[in-house]
Amino acid sequence: MHVDDFDFQLPDALIARHPTKERTGSRLLHLNGQSGQTQHLNFADIESLIEPGDLMVFNDTRVIPARLFGQKTSGGKVEVLVERITSPNTALAHIRANKSAKPGTLLTMEGGIELEVTGRSENLFAIRCLNEQPLVELLEQHGHMPLPPYLEREDDDEDRERYQTVYAQKKGAVAAPTAGLHFDDALLQRLADKGVNTAFVTLHVGAGTFAPVKADSIEEHVMHAEWVEVSAEVVEKIKATKAAGKRVIAIGTTSVRSLESASANGEIEAFSGDTQIFIYPGYRFKTVDAMLTNFHLPKSTLIMLVSAFAGQGNVLNAYNEAITEQYRFFSYGDAMFVTPQPFTEAFAETLAEQSPSFNLNDDSAASAQSKEL
């Protein structure tokens, strides 16, 4: 399949550059993946779409204020975006400067943070913090929230709270699991009172989530690595939910990727480590029964994932309808509640014709449709 198969034209005015006044103040498009039908709702109406006994799975990662501004010892301006904390005083980071930073380069950042570039691997730099205080604490004090580049604005005080889910716990993300931004404590309590169950996984979202797919054929794209943890307790909740005939509902594509990474062997099991799973049409989902997600960038791996779940034609039709109805797009935008398109042999045969790497005889389709460490 080609990356252009997932393109659409979005008016700039529909990019949500600021959050709604209330977390639950967004709109909700309900896409039925089986029929392709859509329904236009308010986000609080999600209560009507989730049944007692269903299990909502959230990503409890916490966004760190990972962006720093400063200068080299030579005086040139520099911007550092921490991608992953590797020890109390070391990290992997993206560095933007007029000239590429070489090992040994010293950087003086806001708040008196002193960094040394110690190496480089592909597009990431290894850095060491020369201050005594742990780097993550310095970032919390002096860093900026790493807003997505398409927002085209600097972060402000409001982003410290709103670019963070109310249930965020484990520090490590440099991008928010945005589907979860729509929930407030009151809505979560109403769902609990209804008998809806919850579970939490962790996927530390990296800046690579915004990386474009550069290959013309999506099968040639290699995903960035992100750290995931799915505990044995969550696995037991999922198994009990399915045994009761209820649904596992992933809140966000990061929760989808977490659960499906832990299901690589065909059945979900406890998992901790890096994942590079790449889900696109042809992938057979093993654990996720429904998902909540925001509207994603054209040609992105995220719209490919949603298309794998609900059908490429259904998703693009829903996106075009959302544009007509003036929905708000991307991280601070509106949401979709999506149910799956059945995987049929006729569909598999069509994919086999379109994608040479698709293996019709592989029941899991995982070897052809995902790449994992």
UniProtKB/TrEMBL annotation:
The reaction(s) this protein catalyses: 7-aminomethyl-7-carbaguanosine(34) in tRNA + S-adenosyl-L-methionine = epoxyqueuosine(34) in tRNA + adenine + L-methionine + 2 H(+)
GO cellular component, one term: cytoplasm
GO biological process: tRNA queuosine(34) biosynthetic process
Presence of keyword Thylakoid: no
Main location: cytoplasm
Keywords of this entry: Cytoplasm, Glycosyltransferase, Isomerase, Queuosine biosynthesis, S-adenosyl-L-methionine, Transferase
Location in the cell: Cytoplasm
Enzyme class: transferase
InterPro entries the UniProt entry points to: QueA (IPR003699), QueA_dom1 (IPR042118), QueA_dom2 (IPR042119), QueA_sf (IPR036100)
Pfam families xref list: Queuosine_synth
Pathway as given in its UniProt record: tRNA modification; tRNA-queuosine biosynthesis
Cleavable signal peptide: none
Its EC number(s): 2.4.99.17
Database matches in SUPFAM superfamilies: QueA-like (SSF111337)
Keyword Zinc in annotation: no
Function, as annotated: Transfers and isomerizes the ribose moiety from AdoMet to the 7-aminomethyl group of 7-deazaguanine (preQ1-tRNA) to give epoxyqueuosine (oQ-tRNA).
Protein family (similarity comment): Belongs to the QueA family.
Subunit structure, as described in the record: Monomer.
Name of the protein this chain belongs to: S-adenosylmethionine:tRNA ribosyltransferase-isomerase
Gene behind this protein: queA
